[in-house]
Amino acid sequence: MGTILTQPVLFAIFGALAVKLLELAELNKVPKPERPDFKDWLYWFPFAVMPFLGGGLALMYTSSNISLQPVLAVNVGVSAPLILRAMAEFNPFQPKAIATEPGA
């Protein structure tokens, strides 16, 4: 197996990092008292985790022989937290409750 930093993985990392950079760029619109504490490491933690998740998800796709073109790889990176959260919440072994109207 070659390097894991393939083009789709790098594009996904870029997409995930771009989301965080856009959030940072938007902070100029937030009043100073409401801005986050930039000295707190927890503020900067997502800047490392998000690209890792985005790149990891792209790696899972490409390892499954799914071709990711650059724009799709960026989209995977941007949406990685949502995709992974949905995967984590889905339990195929848990029966779905059927909602019925009272008196039906």
Notable characteristics:
60% helix; membrane; 104 residues; transmembrane; transmembrane helix; 3 helices; mainly alpha
Explain what you see.
With 104 residues, the protein is mainly α. The protein has one domain. Helices cover 60% and strands 0% of the residues. The protein has three helices and no strands. The chain has helices spanning 7-25, 41-63, 70-89. It is flat and about 55 Å long. It starts with 6 loop residues before the first helix and ends in a 15-residue tail after the last helix. The chain crosses the membrane at residues 42-61. Keywords: Membrane, Transmembrane, Transmembrane helix.
Task: Produce a short descriptive summary.
The chain crosses the membrane at residues 42-61. The chain has 104 residues and is mainly alpha-helical.
Order of helical and strand elements: HHH
Helix content: 55-70%
The span between the termini is 59 Å
Output the structural class. mainly alpha
Radius of gyration equals 19 Å
Q: Based on CA inertia axes, which overall geometry fits? A: flat
- Strand proportion: under 5%
Keywords: Membrane, Transmembrane, Transmembrane helix
